[in-house]
Amino acid sequence: MTTIEVKTTTANYAVKVKIGSLMNVAQAIKTVWTPRRIALITDTTVGALYADQVQTQLMAGGFAVTVLTVPTGEASKSWTQTMRLVEALSQAHFTRNDGVVGDLAGFVASIYMRGIRLIQLPTSLLAQVDSSVGGKTALDLPTGKNLVGSFYQPDLVLIDPQTLTTLPQRMLVEGYGEVVKCAALVGGDFWELLQSIQQPDDILLFAPQLIARSVSFKAQIVRADEKEGGQRQLLNFGHTIGHAVELLGQGKWMHGEAVAMGLVAVCRVFEAQGLTPVGTANAIAARLAVVGLPTELPDLALSTVLEAMRHDKKVHGDQLTWVYLTALGQPQLQPVPLTDLAAWVAPVLNAAA
Amino acid sequence: MTTIEVKTTTANYAVKVKIGSLMNVAQAIKTVWTPRRIALITDTTVGALYADQVQTQLMAGGFAVTVLTVPTGEASKSWTQTMRLVEALSQAHFTRNDGVVGDLAGFVASIYMRGIRLIQLPTSLLAQVDSSVGGKTALDLPTGKNLVGSFYQPDLVLIDPQTLTTLPQRMLVEGYGEVVKCAALVGGDFWELLQSIQQPDDILLFAPQLIARSVSFKAQIVRADEKEGGQRQLLNFGHTIGHAVELLGQGKWMHGEAVAMGLVAVCRVFEAQGLTPVGTANAIAARLAVVGLPTELPDLALSTVLEAMRHDKKVHGDQLTWVYLTALGQPQLQPVPLTDLAAWVAPVLNAAA
């Protein structure tokens, strides 16, 4: 088992990575929680695979369990589902000392009675390497993804790489897109480790290391900067163009796929500016391509890409802050005036169109 | 001007109490905010009185202002209004560095893009002495008041006692109920100051002192205990029975009126237990009665009161923690098993019925 300690200004907690740990979840939870009422919040897909076993274990461990299930998919990150979950907690008379377990429920846990305790059991690679650390919770609005949310730290994150064996290959591979992002930001041994991944199944083989490395990096960033200020912006590497691609694709691209395209595109943008060494984009593209991740942007009109970027949360005043590499493992921040965006982005789009 | 510094584990900010300060709001806001977009969130009643003037000043001060108005009343503390406000911010392209000003908007500010900056301009006595300090935000659910919310600290709280002159007398007086609660918890000079209040108009005369004393006390509590753990529970004095009365009254009693009844009732409960000196309930009732606040509980069935108490947020496990006085200015916490509640509460209800 690998244990990564996450320390923020508001909370300290552990991320534990252990094969088979979901089958001993009660034992892990008992290290941080006394017996209490627990809501197990999951989606229809993951719930069908694991909810019964987890509930049985928790009950045997002395916890009272209410299972709450939302439909699988991004559409459940809605006001409607939030309201439904909050009202279910209220009707079950949950009090402030009770808890929520799951990987979809951070926002609900953060607002019900101004916050009840939370443990995360992420079961997808994307959730394990990306959303499990950092305390970000979110809902989507018609006007944009993740426009509503909170910063809310769990008491424990328990990651069982075994759950990846039931993940559809496309979802396994999309999570690997975020792993490549982390490895490119960290460089060194972590970047070298990616040489071992030559096909999608290799991700399963190396999952414990890939997850532990990614989580350790993210924990280090979150420790330095709990909210999104300086260091934490580094995690947006590949996300500026990536988010635009994801938004404009209207569901065609999964998050990790859009990030994969965004990683290669941002390197090309900064290679053209002479700020990233030529060849970096191709080196990253090679690591993404072996598992089948897309590396070339789809045809997109410059005006729609720019419009999507202008509403990005990374816009501060009249500038959009980009993350680029001066070398693998050497990220930098570069604020670009909104008025210059077209000139920076257009060459990359033309190359793709 | 009185300035009270509030320090919590997550933020430091000032509460400024100054007559006429709402007419110089831009100046005060400039001490904490650079020019940015501001959403001025208010209700129909307060907005009609002040929104134009505040907007004009803010715009003259270099801020871009969007005024968002919700209907006056508790019914606006709803998912529907929250969603409407969040979507209005999104459609106006507010980013994370923009801000929200108002006394109804803390929850919206805390969840839009995981938190935008917030300044409170409370215009009712209840908001000035009670909800302006402590960072609690809340929504109501069909199953109970304030069941959803967050802890979220503002950058500044600006209190203009002049706004109390436009407050209906019943609302002025209900706010005074919370002032009496604070004075009873603090004792000494603060309690003596209440001797000066012999009729509702005296509240206006002494408003700056009453507000400053109440806010200072609350700031001291919040500093020791940002979330509701130990010290902060003291602020629940009078609220255990008070909340039940408010809930069961279904809108008949304003919050401060229910608290007034709850203050007297809890003293009677603890006088009967021999834990509060006999005469305390009458001393508090006298201070409340001179301004016309109710001091005797309405007729309530024991079973409905107990049911309301069992769902109280102050229930931890099988106990409900009460606040009582060993003397004026000497509060204590007393956990009471839920199974004993009936025996503690019944005598007070019988006396009132």
TrEMBL record, chains A, B:
<dbReference type="Pfam" id="PF24621">
    <property type="entry name" value="DHQS_C"/>
</dbReference>
<keyword id="KW-0057">Aromatic amino acid biosynthesis</keyword>
<feature type="binding site">
    <location>
        <position position="255"/>
    </location>
    <ligand>
        <name>Zn(2+)</name>
    </ligand>
</feature>
<feature type="domain" description="3-dehydroquinate synthase N-terminal">
    <location>
        <begin position="68"/>
        <end position="172"/>
    </location>
</feature>
<keyword id="KW-0170">Cobalt</keyword>
<feature type="binding site">
    <location>
        <begin position="163"/>
        <end position="166"/>
    </location>
    <ligand>
        <name>NAD(+)</name>
    </ligand>
</feature>
<dbReference type="Pfam" id="PF01761">
    <property type="entry name" value="DHQ_synthase"/>
</dbReference>
<keyword id="KW-0963">Cytoplasm</keyword>
<keyword id="KW-0028">Amino-acid biosynthesis</keyword>
<feature type="binding site">
    <location>
        <position position="136"/>
    </location>
    <ligand>
        <name>NAD(+)</name>
    </ligand>
</feature>
<keyword id="KW-0547">Nucleotide-binding</keyword>
<dbReference type="InterPro" id="IPR016037">
    <property type="entry name" value="DHQ_synth_AroB"/>
</dbReference>
<dbReference type="InterPro" id="IPR050071">
    <property type="entry name" value="Dehydroquinate_synthase"/>
</dbReference>
<feature type="binding site">
    <location>
        <position position="239"/>
    </location>
    <ligand>
        <name>Zn(2+)</name>
    </ligand>
</feature>
<keyword id="KW-0862">Zinc</keyword>
<comment type="similarity">
    <text>Belongs to the sugar phosphate cyclases superfamily. Dehydroquinate synthase family.</text>
</comment>
<feature type="binding site">
    <location>
        <position position="145"/>
    </location>
    <ligand>
        <name>NAD(+)</name>
    </ligand>
</feature>
<keyword id="KW-0520">NAD</keyword>
<keyword id="KW-0456">Lyase</keyword>
<dbReference type="InterPro" id="IPR030963">
    <property type="entry name" value="DHQ_synth_fam"/>
</dbReference>
<dbReference type="InterPro" id="IPR056179">
    <property type="entry name" value="DHQS_C"/>
</dbReference>
<feature type="domain" description="3-dehydroquinate synthase C-terminal">
    <location>
        <begin position="175"/>
        <end position="315"/>
    </location>
</feature>
<feature type="binding site">
    <location>
        <begin position="99"/>
        <end position="103"/>
    </location>
    <ligand>
        <name>NAD(+)</name>
    </ligand>
</feature>
<dbReference type="InterPro" id="IPR030960">
    <property type="entry name" value="DHQS/DOIS_N"/>
</dbReference>
<comment type="function">
    <text>Catalyzes the conversion of 3-deoxy-D-arabino-heptulosonate 7-phosphate (DAHP) to dehydroquinate (DHQ).</text>
</comment>
<protein>
    <recommendedName>
        <fullName>3-dehydroquinate synthase</fullName>
        <ecNumber>4.2.3.4</ecNumber>
    </recommendedName>
</protein>
<feature type="binding site">
    <location>
        <begin position="123"/>
        <end position="124"/>
    </location>
    <ligand>
        <name>NAD(+)</name>
    </ligand>
</feature>
<feature type="binding site">
    <location>
        <position position="178"/>
    </location>
    <ligand>
        <name>Zn(2+)</name>
    </ligand>
</feature>
<keyword id="KW-0479">Metal-binding</keyword>
<comment type="pathway">
    <text>Metabolic intermediate biosynthesis; chorismate biosynthesis; chorismate from D-erythrose 4-phosphate and phosphoenolpyruvate: step 2/7.</text>
</comment>
<dbReference type="GO" id="GO:0003856">
    <property type="term" value="F:3-dehydroquinate synthase activity"/>
</dbReference>
